[in-house]
Amino acid sequence: MAEAWPIDAHSPDELPAPLAARLTEHLEQGERIRKLIWVPAERGPLSAGARKSGLWRLTRGDQVLAATDRRWIVGAEGVPEETGRWLAIPYADVVAWALTESLLYGRVDVCGQPSGCLVTASLEFNTVGRWMIEEALLPLQAAALGIDARPASSGPSDRPDPPGLPMKFVSFLRHELLAGEWPLGVVFEQRRVIRFLGFWRRLARPAQLIATTDLRLLVIREEPGVEEARYGYTAASLPRRRLGDLVVVDTGPSLAVRHGADVALLGPPLANGPA
User: Fold this and answer.
1) 163-210 pLDDT, tens digit each
2) Region class of 92: left (phi > 0), else alpha (psi between -120 and 50), else beta
3) Degrees (nearest 5) of the Cα angle 76, 77, 78?
4) What is the 3-state secondary structure (H, E, C) of the chain?
5) How far is 48 from 269, CA to CA, in rounded Å?
6) Is 272 within the bounds of a domain?
7) For the chain, what is the largest distance between any 2 Cα atoms, rounded to a whole number of angstroms?
8) Whole-angstrom Cα distance, residue 98 to residue 267?
9) How far is residue 25's CA from residue 188's CA, in Å, rounded to a whole number?
10) Could you tell me if 88 and 114 are in contact, meaning their C-beta atoms sit under 8 angstroms apart?
11) Strands 7-9 and 33-39, how do they pair?
12) Could you say which of 28, 127, 134, 147 is the most buried, measured as most Cβ atoms within 10 Å of its Cβ?
């Protein structure tokens, strides 16, 4: 999947010509780019097989992500119109975001209301370059949460871990917390598997951790599947100031947010993915 590795760019001039032109069209007067990422199209032999399981929908074309001093801009060239829309979401209009990792598959989704309706800007990438995506999220998190966002230290902490959590969820939680952020309360739910016809099993809901901090509601949901070894997850964040207007929707294996009649998916559409 090497062709879907994110590439750290410094200016639109380093992007392929179609992407550079479209991105320049979307930039406002005086808008400064803080982080620019180009994800080349995935055209390798694993691509078709991966898409049969519902993954790698956007990587058929070149993708770009620009985190500016004002907005989150995502676009793609060479993909179907329904998945290749260019979207620019001002940080003031961001209502939620989610980061998904499943082996080499990564996806970031940002949900906002730039025109009064919920929209989701998405980017798929090879997780070898996840650190670039996390850096691009920092200005968005800082604006949405009203803080100077910094990733938490990877070293040991003197704070005790929430009791009763599986070690992998402790690891997920520590990775997602920002510097100085710590849970005020947590609820952990084991995955729910339904048996039918005596021996077949179907996943009703993956295991998930719901944590509240002084900044946000953080929902960490294990990747769907009935196998014992599940190490991928989606981490969805909703700022506390938005919680009075939004509802988290449990759609089975996936998560979504609802505002009025509008529903926006957070994370990849894995409901029909591998069991």
Assistant:
1) 888 898 899 999 999 888 888 998 988 877 677 766 666 666 778 899
2) alpha
3) 125
4) CHHHCCEEECCHHHCCHHHHHHHHHHCCCCCCEEEEEEECCCCCCHHHHHHHCCCCCCCCCEEEEEEECCEEEEEEECCCCCCCCCEEEEHHHEEEEEEEEECCEEEEEEEECCCCCCEEEEEEEEHHHHHHHHHHHHHHHHHHHCCCCCECCCCCCCCCCCCCCCHHHHHHHHHHCECCCCCCEEEEECCEEEEECCCEEEEEECCEEEEECCCEEEEEEECCCCCCCCCCEEEEEEEHHHCCCCEEEECCCCEEEEECCEEEEECCCCCCCCC
5) 17
6) no
7) 64
8) 6
9) 45
10) yes
11) antiparallel
12) 127
Domain membership of residue 42 as a residue range: 2-266
Who's near 104: CB < 8 A, 6+ residues apart? 1, 126, 127, 128
Q: How far apart are CA 125 and CA 135, in angstroms?
A: 14
Q: For 208-255, how does the pLDDT look when each residue is reduced to its tens digit (9 = 90+)?
A: 899 999 999 999 988 776 566 677 899 999 999 888 878 888 776 677
CA gap 74, 110 in Å, rounded: 9
Closest to 224 (Cα-Cα) out of 189, 253, 259, 190: 253
Q: Which residues make beta-bridge pairs with 75?
A: 64
Is the residue at 271 inside a domain? Answer: no
Record the tokens describing residue 139, joined without a space.
């200005």
Q: How far apart are CA 226 and CA 48, in angstroms?
A: 23
In a domain, 156, yes or no: yes
pTM for the model stands at 0.83
How many domains does the chain contain in total? 1
CA distance 109 to 101: 12
Residue 238 bridge partners (DSSP) = 217
Nearest CA among 123, 128, 109, 126 for reference residue 58? 123
Residue 210 to residue 191: CA distance in whole angstroms: 13
